[in-house]
Write a structure and sequence with these properties.
single chain, 141 residues, alpha/beta, Rossmann fold, seven-stranded mixed beta sheet, globular
């Protein structure tokens, strides 16, 4: 599956995340890539809404990972501060790539791509003008 959409606002970006989350199953991994400010965390907030997570979703940049409970647990990782993929393993996060009990979403996933399963859903967010973003979703068949 490949889908490309243009988001005109943070609400649109979150809605696309929510729509994707409705299709995900336990064990799925979603890899997010895009420049700083492209909307990765906003997309995850929409995913959380689609998984019926009730708490606020925050960027895990400084803690590397957060877990949210919803229809399925959402493991939210951030590889921004990762210098090498082995650092993610050393931090004890290998067991959620993929998670046996929920969904895993990784921001800055290109930094740890070699650790991600071949069935990973890739989401690329590209800054356009103003609040507009191009969001390309590529999922294995």
């Amino acid at each position: 599956m490949e889908r490309t959409a243009v988001s005109d606002s943070p609400e649109d970006t979150a809605r696309l995340g929510e729509e994707l989350a409705a299709r995900l199953r336990c064990g799925d991994v979603v890899a997010l890539v895009g420049d700083l400010g492209a909307g990765k965390t906003t997309f995850v907030q929409g995913m959380a809404r689609g998984l019926f997570v009730s708490e606020a979703v925050l960027s895990p940049s400084y803690v590397l990972a957060r877990r949210y409970d919803g229809r399925l647990p959402l493991h939210h990782l951030d590889a921004y501060r990762i210098g090498e993929p082995r650092e993610l393993i050393e931090a004890g996060l290998r067991e959620v790539l993929p998670s046996e009990d929920g969904i895993t979403v990784v921001e800055w996933a290109d930094r740890v791509a070699e650790l991600l399963p071949s069935a990973t859903v890739w989401v690329e967010l590209t800054l356009l003008e103003g609040e507009r973003r191009r969001i390309a979703i590529t999922a294995p068949a």
